[in-house]
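chain below, 258 aa
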Amino acid sequence: MEGSEIAVLPETALTQSPAEVIGRAQVIANALAPIIEKQKLFTVIGGKKHVWVEGWTTMLAMLNVFPTVDFVRKLERPDEVAYEARVVLKFADGRVFAAEHMCSNREAGKSGWPEYAVKSMAQTRAVGKAARLSFSWIMSLAGYATTPAEEMDAAVGSVTVPRYQFGPQPTETTGTSGEVKTIPQMAAEIKSWIGLMCNEDPAKMDAMIRDFTKWKAKDTGEEKSLDLNSLPNIKKIEWIKRIHNNVSHRYTMFATKQ
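prediction:
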């Protein structure tokens, strides 16, 4: 949801000269860029690198600014699951900045998303938006696009800009537990479940994806990580169905312990 932003300047911005403000921001940008690159906290859209929320929150931590969720609420809409969230950035001196955003399962690529994933994305986007409206200029100094990847995800559809690319997605439909789902819907659920189990930690998520795509060579017994991009569509569909089923079981066990 757009609007309701409360803009303020941190105390240091009021007491430092413009050169000092830019100088400090450039130091932060120079420290931020290697982290984003090493952890691959971005996706390329239209030739530009758009940073995921973990990159934005890393920048906030460097600025000693901390995001907190003010509210997240369900929007009552017929035949739709939609949530809006408001996030407040708290500066060390007590000042605040707030922004709101939303997510809906009516967006492209999200028709198969469970309700908790829609709710979580609303909060994630609100964090990114608050950070963007306050400090996009620092992200620009670091050499990245000033719109968070999650907001671009809303604009072009999560199937087009997935967090974890399984390769071009076949469009055939297939059944899982009696429910017909498309392959992109399954891929979106896999991404969401793994993100929740790993607390959105990129390194842990990559490791879990490798674990779910392991296979053992018959001739040598060596374990390898499957490259889905190298498979024909029929085999790719079979593997995505298998991965979806395994991740679903793992997430069910994870959720029951929470």
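The first helix runs from residue 11 to 15. Strands lie at 42-45, 48-51, 65-77, 80-91, 96-104, 173-176, 179-182, 214-216, 223-225.
thats it, cya
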